[in-house]
Amino acid sequence: MTTSPLERLGLRERKKLKTRRAIQEHALRLFLANGYDATTVEQIAEAAEVSPSTFFRYFPSKEDVVVTDEYDPLIVESLRAQPGDLSPVEALRATLREIIGMMRAEDRQRIVERVTLSMSVPALRARQWENMQDTQLLIAQTLAERVGRSPDDFELRAFSGALLGVWQATILTWVENVGESDLLDLLERGLDYLSAGCPL
């Protein structure tokens, strides 16, 4: 039986992930109760029972506690482990099935809360765009290893950008339905559309 990327983390990494999630969960709770602007890093740190310096070891800024998560490195690890005979789309499909499949109900709820907050706060929308660019670069670099091309290759950049477009459309549609749609079904639909050349 294969293990998920999360299960393959060492003890130290799992402890760090637990702390990271706790900080983020307390931050989201406080943002919901008091508003994003009115909540301070010190309040988040106190609620999570960590020091402000520990907060900043996990999240460089208050914006980052909303827009970042642990999934990028897990996606990269899973994508690198996919069989070499899979096409880029099919390798990504298998990767995202694995990542979404290991999400708990509370993980999905946290995504809904983070995306809803990001759409309502201008500073978070700007930071989210930067975060998406970082994710696109990571995916392009990982796909470049699979297909033997440069991460700067135009077609590779276009493909990774299209993939992020599919992901963004999937998440926004899912969140607009308050998480009631099936996230994996929406993603499969988006990847099928990408594979078909995005016909309109």
Task: Please explain how this structure is put together.
With about 200 residues, the chain is mainly α. Helices cover about 75% and strands about 0% of the residues. The chain is built from 10 helices and no strands. It has helices at about 10-35, 40-50, 50-60, 65, 70-80, 90-100, 105-120, 120-145, 155-175, 185-195. Helix 9 runs antiparallel to helix 10 (about 185-195). The N and C termini lie far apart (about 40 Å). The mean pLDDT is about 90.
In terms of per-residue confidence, which ranges show pLDDT below 50 for 5 or more consecutive residues? Answer: none
What's the gyration radius in Å? 18 Å
> What is the total tally of β strands?
0
Return the average pLDDT rounded to an integer: 89
Residue fraction in strands: under 5%
Give the terminus-to-terminus CA distance.
41 Å
Q: SSE order, as H and E?
A: HHHHHHHHHH
For the sheet with most strands, the description reads: none
Name the structural class: mainly alpha
Number of helices: 10
Shape: globular
Summarize the amount of helix as a percent range: over 70%
Topology:
Layout: H1 11-34, H2 41-48, H3 52-58, H4 64-67, H5 71-81, H6 88-101, H7 105-120, H8 122-147, H9 154-176, H10 183-195
What would the keywords be for this entry?
single chain, 200 residues, mainly alpha, 10 helices
